[in-house]
Amino acid sequence: MTTLSEDSLDVVERLINEGEARRIEQIRIIAHLTERGQNSAEATHALKDIEDTLAALRCRWEYLQAMQEKP
After folding, report:
1. Proportion of the chain above pLDDT 90, given as a percent
2. What is the DSSP secondary structure assignment for residue 34, as one 8-state letter?
3. Which domain of life is it from (predicted)?
4. Overall pTM surpassing 0.90 (yes/no)
5. Distances from the Cα of 62 to the Cαs of 35, 55, 65, in angstroms?
6. What is the full DSSP assignment across 39-66?
């Protein structure tokens, strides 16, 4: 049986992976808009939000990992 922190780690890791996929897609959208000479400001703002969320999730993952390793 897994502990709560192991389950939480798995959930946060899944969210990080999903967020990373969104980040990559957003970068593609920005590149496409830029190639077409269109304004990418809104898409760039969305990318920043995605990256901020990923940073918070990575901090949470590190915290949960550290808590799991404590005796």
Report:
1. 83
2. H
3. Bacteria
4. no
5. 38, 11, 5
6. --HHHHHHHHHHHHHHHHHHHHHHHHHH
